[in-house]
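Hello again,

I reread your note about wanting to compare the complex against the isolated chains. To keep things tidy I'm splitting this into two emails, and this first one only covers the full assembly. Below are the input lines as submitted, including protein chains and any nucleic acid or small-molecule components. They are followed by the predicted structure of everything together. The single-chain runs will come separately.
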Amino acid sequence: MPELPEVEHTRKNLVRWMQGARIAGVRTSDARIVRPLRPAAFVRALAGRRVVGIERRGKWLKAMLDDGRRLFVHLGMTGSFERLDEGQHEPRFTRVLFDVVRGARSRNVAYVDSRRWGRLLLADVDVPTWTSLGPDPLTDGIDVDALAAKLARRKRRTIKEALMDQSILAGVGNIQAIEALWKARIDPRSPASAMSRADLQAIAKGLRWTITRTLADLAKEEDRPAKLLSQSREDERAASPFRIYGRTVCPRCGSALARVILGGRTTTFCPTCQRRR
DNA sequence: CGGCATGTTGCGCA
DNA sequence: TTGCGCAACATGCC
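Full-complex prediction:
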Protein backbone atom coordinates (compact mmCIF):
# COMPACT_ATOMS: atom_id res chain seq x y z
CA MET A 1 0.00 0.00 0.00
CA PRO A 2 2.25 2.52 -1.25
CA GLU A 3 2.56 6.22 -1.39
CA LEU A 4 5.59 8.04 -0.07
CA PRO A 5 4.91 7.37 3.64
CA GLU A 6 4.25 3.66 3.18
CA VAL A 7 7.33 3.30 1.01
CA GLU A 8 9.46 5.17 3.53
CA HIS A 9 8.11 2.89 6.23
CA THR A 10 9.02 -0.09 4.06
CA ARG A 11 12.51 1.32 3.58
CA LYS A 12 13.08 1.53 7.30
CA ASN A 13 11.97 -2.06 7.72
CA LEU A 14 14.26 -3.25 4.95
CA VAL A 15 17.18 -1.38 6.49
CA ARG A 16 16.58 -3.24 9.75
CA TRP A 17 16.07 -6.58 8.07
CA MET A 18 18.57 -6.56 5.21
CA GLN A 19 21.15 -3.81 5.40
CA GLY A 20 24.55 -5.33 5.98
CA ALA A 21 23.12 -8.82 5.60
CA ARG A 22 23.69 -11.38 2.88
CA ILE A 23 21.07 -12.74 0.54
CA ALA A 24 21.84 -16.45 0.77
CA GLY A 25 19.10 -17.43 -1.61
CA VAL A 26 16.04 -16.25 -3.50
CA ARG A 27 13.00 -18.12 -4.69
CA THR A 28 10.51 -16.85 -7.25
CA SER A 29 8.67 -17.98 -10.34
CA ASP A 30 7.06 -14.64 -11.12
CA ALA A 31 8.37 -13.46 -14.48
CA ARG A 32 6.19 -10.37 -14.46
CA ILE A 33 7.52 -8.89 -11.23
CA VAL A 34 11.22 -9.51 -11.91
CA ARG A 35 11.13 -8.63 -15.59
CA PRO A 36 13.02 -8.07 -17.78
CA LEU A 37 15.13 -10.79 -16.17
CA ARG A 38 13.76 -14.30 -16.16
CA PRO A 39 13.21 -15.69 -12.67
CA ALA A 40 16.20 -18.04 -12.94
CA ALA A 41 18.54 -15.23 -13.93
CA PHE A 42 17.13 -12.97 -11.21
CA VAL A 43 17.75 -15.62 -8.56
CA ARG A 44 21.27 -16.33 -9.83
CA ALA A 45 22.26 -12.65 -9.86
CA LEU A 46 21.07 -12.03 -6.32
CA ALA A 47 22.24 -15.15 -4.53
CA GLY A 48 25.28 -14.49 -2.35
CA ARG A 49 25.06 -10.71 -2.57
CA ARG A 50 25.34 -8.46 0.43
CA VAL A 51 22.97 -5.50 0.83
CA VAL A 52 25.01 -2.35 1.32
CA GLY A 53 22.23 0.19 1.76
CA ILE A 54 18.66 1.06 0.90
CA GLU A 55 17.50 4.40 -0.47
CA ARG A 56 14.13 5.79 -1.40
CA ARG A 57 13.07 8.33 -3.94
CA GLY A 58 9.34 8.95 -4.19
CA LYS A 59 7.66 5.58 -4.37
CA TRP A 60 10.80 3.79 -5.55
CA LEU A 61 13.32 1.97 -3.43
CA LYS A 62 16.90 1.17 -4.41
CA ALA A 63 18.90 -1.53 -2.67
CA MET A 64 22.62 -1.18 -3.33
CA LEU A 65 24.43 -4.49 -3.57
CA ASP A 66 28.05 -5.29 -2.84
CA ASP A 67 28.83 -5.94 -6.50
CA GLY A 68 27.72 -2.46 -7.52
CA ARG A 69 24.46 -3.63 -8.99
CA ARG A 70 21.17 -2.33 -7.61
CA LEU A 71 17.73 -3.70 -7.02
CA PHE A 72 15.00 -1.18 -7.74
CA VAL A 73 11.68 -1.88 -6.07
CA HIS A 74 8.24 -0.48 -6.76
CA LEU A 75 5.33 -1.77 -4.71
CA GLY A 76 2.68 -1.01 -7.31
CA MET A 77 -0.74 -0.92 -5.69
CA THR A 78 -0.59 -3.95 -3.43
CA GLY A 79 3.06 -4.79 -2.83
CA SER A 80 4.64 -5.15 0.61
CA PHE A 81 7.52 -6.82 2.42
CA GLU A 82 7.11 -9.07 5.42
CA ARG A 83 9.71 -10.65 7.63
CA LEU A 84 8.81 -14.19 8.59
CA ASP A 85 9.45 -15.69 11.96
CA GLU A 86 11.20 -19.02 12.02
CA GLY A 87 8.88 -21.73 10.78
CA GLN A 88 6.20 -19.18 9.97
CA HIS A 89 3.90 -20.09 7.14
CA GLU A 90 4.58 -18.16 3.95
CA PRO A 91 1.99 -15.40 3.46
CA ARG A 92 -0.67 -15.72 0.78
CA PHE A 93 0.39 -13.96 -2.45
CA THR A 94 4.10 -14.25 -1.72
CA ARG A 95 5.80 -13.69 -5.08
CA VAL A 96 9.47 -13.56 -4.09
CA LEU A 97 11.11 -15.07 -1.03
CA PHE A 98 14.53 -13.94 0.21
CA ASP A 99 16.70 -15.95 2.54
CA VAL A 100 18.55 -13.29 4.49
CA VAL A 101 21.59 -14.21 6.55
CA ARG A 102 23.20 -12.02 9.17
CA GLY A 103 25.94 -13.65 11.19
CA ALA A 104 24.63 -17.03 12.21
CA ARG A 105 20.97 -16.07 11.95
CA SER A 106 18.86 -16.71 8.87
CA ARG A 107 15.44 -15.24 8.23
CA ASN A 108 12.99 -15.14 5.36
CA VAL A 109 11.75 -11.89 3.92
CA ALA A 110 8.76 -12.17 1.59
CA TYR A 111 7.71 -9.83 -1.17
CA VAL A 112 3.93 -10.10 -1.18
CA ASP A 113 1.80 -8.64 -3.95
CA SER A 114 -1.72 -9.84 -4.75
CA ARG A 115 -2.24 -7.67 -7.80
CA ARG A 116 1.26 -8.08 -9.17
CA TRP A 117 1.74 -4.52 -10.36
CA GLY A 118 4.95 -4.21 -8.38
CA ARG A 119 8.49 -4.52 -9.79
CA LEU A 120 11.79 -5.89 -8.55
CA LEU A 121 14.12 -4.52 -11.17
CA LEU A 122 17.77 -5.53 -11.08
CA ALA A 123 20.14 -3.23 -12.95
CA ASP A 124 23.83 -2.36 -13.32
CA VAL A 125 23.28 1.39 -13.18
CA ASP A 126 20.54 3.81 -12.18
CA VAL A 127 17.57 3.40 -14.49
CA PRO A 128 15.70 6.29 -16.15
CA THR A 129 12.60 5.66 -14.11
CA TRP A 130 14.71 6.47 -11.03
CA THR A 131 16.75 9.36 -12.37
CA SER A 132 13.80 11.15 -13.95
CA LEU A 133 11.88 11.42 -10.70
CA GLY A 134 11.24 14.91 -9.37
CA PRO A 135 12.34 16.06 -5.92
CA ASP A 136 11.17 14.00 -2.96
CA PRO A 137 9.09 16.16 -0.58
CA LEU A 138 10.46 14.42 2.50
CA THR A 139 14.16 14.09 1.74
CA ASP A 140 14.65 17.01 -0.65
CA GLY A 141 11.98 19.37 0.58
CA ILE A 142 9.86 21.47 -1.74
CA ASP A 143 11.35 24.39 -3.62
CA VAL A 144 8.39 26.64 -4.36
CA ASP A 145 10.14 28.47 -7.20
CA ALA A 146 11.11 25.24 -8.93
CA LEU A 147 7.62 23.89 -8.42
CA ALA A 148 6.07 27.05 -9.88
CA ALA A 149 8.28 26.77 -12.94
CA LYS A 150 7.19 23.21 -13.60
CA LEU A 151 3.52 23.93 -13.03
CA ALA A 152 3.59 26.87 -15.42
CA ARG A 153 3.98 24.48 -18.31
CA ARG A 154 1.06 22.27 -17.34
CA LYS A 155 -1.64 24.40 -18.93
CA ARG A 156 -4.35 21.77 -19.05
CA ARG A 157 -3.56 20.02 -15.78
CA THR A 158 -5.40 20.43 -12.54
CA ILE A 159 -3.26 21.03 -9.48
CA LYS A 160 -4.21 17.63 -8.12
CA GLU A 161 -3.07 15.80 -11.25
CA ALA A 162 0.15 17.82 -11.27
CA LEU A 163 0.96 16.91 -7.67
CA MET A 164 0.62 13.25 -8.60
CA ASP A 165 3.00 13.65 -11.56
CA GLN A 166 6.15 11.85 -10.39
CA SER A 167 8.42 14.06 -12.45
CA ILE A 168 7.12 17.16 -10.65
CA LEU A 169 7.20 15.76 -7.11
CA ALA A 170 8.15 12.17 -6.38
CA GLY A 171 5.99 10.13 -4.06
CA VAL A 172 2.70 12.01 -3.96
CA GLY A 173 -0.21 9.73 -4.81
CA ASN A 174 -3.97 9.98 -4.74
CA ILE A 175 -4.43 10.07 -0.98
CA GLN A 176 -1.58 12.42 -0.13
CA ALA A 177 -2.64 14.84 -2.89
CA ILE A 178 -6.23 14.82 -1.63
CA GLU A 179 -5.19 15.39 1.97
CA ALA A 180 -2.65 18.13 1.20
CA LEU A 181 -5.09 20.12 -0.92
CA TRP A 182 -7.70 19.87 1.77
CA LYS A 183 -5.20 21.19 4.29
CA ALA A 184 -4.27 24.01 1.91
CA ARG A 185 -7.97 24.81 1.30
CA ILE A 186 -7.51 24.59 -2.46
CA ASP A 187 -10.01 23.02 -4.84
CA PRO A 188 -8.28 20.07 -6.55
CA ARG A 189 -9.84 21.06 -9.90
CA SER A 190 -7.97 24.38 -9.97
CA PRO A 191 -5.57 24.76 -12.90
CA ALA A 192 -2.00 23.94 -11.89
CA SER A 193 -0.78 27.07 -13.64
CA ALA A 194 -3.09 29.29 -11.58
CA MET A 195 -1.38 28.67 -8.24
CA SER A 196 0.06 31.72 -6.50
CA ARG A 197 3.21 31.60 -4.40
CA ALA A 198 1.04 31.64 -1.30
CA ASP A 199 -0.95 28.69 -2.69
CA LEU A 200 2.23 26.73 -3.32
CA GLN A 201 3.52 27.50 0.13
CA ALA A 202 0.25 26.21 1.56
CA ILE A 203 0.46 23.08 -0.58
CA ALA A 204 4.06 22.45 0.50
CA LYS A 205 2.97 22.80 4.08
CA GLY A 206 -0.03 20.54 3.49
CA LEU A 207 2.15 17.85 1.97
CA ARG A 208 4.59 17.96 4.85
CA TRP A 209 1.67 17.75 7.23
CA THR A 210 -0.01 14.74 5.65
CA ILE A 211 3.20 12.84 4.93
CA THR A 212 4.47 13.29 8.46
CA ARG A 213 1.14 12.29 9.99
CA THR A 214 0.80 9.19 7.85
CA LEU A 215 4.35 8.18 8.66
CA ALA A 216 3.78 8.61 12.39
CA ASP A 217 0.65 6.53 12.15
CA LEU A 218 2.49 3.72 10.41
CA ALA A 219 5.17 3.73 13.09
CA LYS A 220 2.52 3.59 15.78
CA GLU A 221 0.75 0.49 14.50
CA GLU A 222 4.14 -1.21 14.17
CA ASP A 223 4.39 -3.24 17.37
CA ARG A 224 0.72 -3.29 18.23
CA PRO A 225 -0.30 -6.90 19.03
CA ALA A 226 -2.08 -7.72 15.77
CA LYS A 227 -5.68 -6.66 15.44
CA LEU A 228 -7.48 -7.11 18.70
CA LEU A 229 -9.42 -3.97 18.02
CA SER A 230 -12.92 -4.36 16.65
CA GLN A 231 -13.18 -4.44 12.90
CA SER A 232 -16.55 -3.03 11.97
CA ARG A 233 -16.82 -0.64 9.06
CA GLU A 234 -17.51 2.21 11.43
CA ASP A 235 -14.52 1.48 13.59
CA GLU A 236 -12.29 1.20 10.53
CA ARG A 237 -13.52 4.57 9.38
CA ALA A 238 -13.04 6.22 12.71
CA ALA A 239 -9.57 4.76 12.94
CA SER A 240 -8.58 6.02 9.48
CA PRO A 241 -5.55 8.27 9.70
CA PHE A 242 -6.90 10.38 6.85
CA ARG A 243 -8.94 13.54 7.20
CA ILE A 244 -11.15 13.33 4.12
CA TYR A 245 -10.00 10.42 1.95
CA GLY A 246 -12.62 7.70 2.31
CA ARG A 247 -14.86 9.96 4.36
CA THR A 248 -18.13 11.74 3.64
CA VAL A 249 -18.13 14.75 5.97
CA CYS A 250 -15.59 17.54 6.22
CA PRO A 251 -14.07 17.46 9.72
CA ARG A 252 -13.31 21.18 9.44
CA CYS A 253 -16.65 22.67 8.46
CA GLY A 254 -19.12 19.79 8.58
CA SER A 255 -20.13 20.06 4.92
CA ALA A 256 -20.82 17.00 2.83
CA LEU A 257 -17.67 16.10 0.91
CA ALA A 258 -17.81 15.96 -2.89
CA ARG A 259 -16.21 13.49 -5.30
CA VAL A 260 -14.96 14.00 -8.81
CA ILE A 261 -12.68 12.04 -11.10
CA LEU A 262 -9.35 13.71 -11.87
CA GLY A 263 -6.62 11.99 -13.80
CA GLY A 264 -8.77 8.90 -13.71
CA ARG A 265 -8.78 8.78 -9.92
CA THR A 266 -11.52 9.36 -7.41
CA THR A 267 -10.89 12.72 -5.78
CA THR A 268 -12.52 13.78 -2.53
CA PHE A 269 -12.74 17.44 -1.58
CA CYS A 270 -14.78 19.87 0.48
CA PRO A 271 -16.78 22.21 -1.77
CA THR A 272 -17.16 24.66 1.10
CA CYS A 273 -13.69 25.19 2.46
CA GLN A 274 -11.58 24.32 -0.59
CA ARG A 275 -11.76 27.22 -3.00
CA ARG A 276 -11.19 27.21 -6.71
CA ARG A 277 -8.46 29.31 -8.26
C1' DC B 1 -22.60 -9.75 -11.03
C1' DG B 2 -21.02 -4.84 -10.88
C1' DG B 3 -18.05 -1.62 -9.11
C1' DC B 4 -14.08 -0.02 -6.86
C1' DA B 5 -9.07 0.01 -5.38
C1' DT B 6 -2.92 4.14 -1.80
C1' DG B 7 -0.04 3.10 -9.52
C1' DT B 8 2.59 3.21 -13.88
C1' DT B 9 3.27 2.65 -18.77
C1' DG B 10 2.52 2.67 -23.58
C1' DC B 11 0.34 4.59 -27.54
C1' DG B 12 -1.68 7.87 -30.70
C1' DC B 13 -2.29 12.65 -31.41
C1' DA B 14 -1.57 17.63 -31.26
C1' DT C 1 10.22 17.39 -27.88
C1' DT C 2 6.62 17.85 -24.76
C1' DG C 3 2.08 17.60 -22.99
C1' DC C 4 -2.30 15.37 -23.00
C1' DG C 5 -5.99 11.71 -22.62
C1' DC C 6 -6.96 7.17 -22.15
C1' DA C 7 -6.82 2.17 -22.30
C1' DA C 8 -4.38 -1.55 -20.36
C1' DC C 9 -2.20 -4.19 -16.90
C1' DA C 10 -4.03 -8.33 -12.73
C1' DT C 11 -6.49 -9.45 -8.86
C1' DG C 12 -9.13 -9.16 -4.51
C1' DC C 13 -12.93 -7.70 -2.04
C1' DC C 14 -17.47 -5.70 -0.78
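For quick reference: The longest helix of chain A spans residues 197-220.

B.
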